[in-house]
Amino acid sequence: HDADPLAQRATVETLVGLGARRVELVDTLIAAAVGCGLPVEQPTATMIMVCGAATTQIAVLSLGSIVTAVRIPVGGNAIDEAIIQHLRQHHELLLPSQSVRPLQLALHGNGLQLTGPALTEIHGRDVATGLARSVQVDTAAVRQAIHTPLTAVLDGVGKVLRDCPPDLVADLADRGIMMVGGSAL
């Protein structure tokens, strides 16, 4: 349902034209939850976070529908950009955008959690010379660099929980949040 009505209609007409007898549009959040095998039809609550490149969607689902949801205009690209800017400003290192994902994976195992080594080696290009160079990066500084975009996402989680009935919030304490999407590390 993220598409505008004209795009939705065109999609339905195309699928019917190709021979589909029935076409039903399903909200992205519900489709993601069903795809993960979450019990969306149950009377208990399920929380899902769809982490995309440009946006993050968070919802509580119960009885096959969305109880409450929010879309935040912060996604993986904002986190990538925060890391790239940090490395450029504090280490004079250029890191191509395609190199950020491996860096995030390395940092996840090396200290985006509060345990692990305090430093990790990053390979990029020197801002002044353009030559390849490596630097040791403080993982705590990277955590600080991504603090702003992650805070926006956490604020979205808080809003969804505040808008959710208390009995469903109690269900979520046991189940947690299912994170899906290309930016769900």
Automatic annotation (TrEMBL):
Q: Name one GO biological process term.
A: cell morphogenesis
Q: Which domain of life is it from?
A: Bacteria
Extract one GO molecular function annotation from the record: ATP binding
Q: Pfam families per the record?
A: MreB_Mbl
| Localization terms from the record | Cytoplasm
| Keyword GTP-binding among record annotations | no
Key words, A-Z: ATP-binding, Cell shape, Cytoplasm, Nucleotide-binding
What GO CC terms are in its UniProt record?
cytoplasm
The record's comment on protein family reads: Belongs to the FtsA/MreB family.
Q: This protein is called what?
A: Rod shape-determining protein
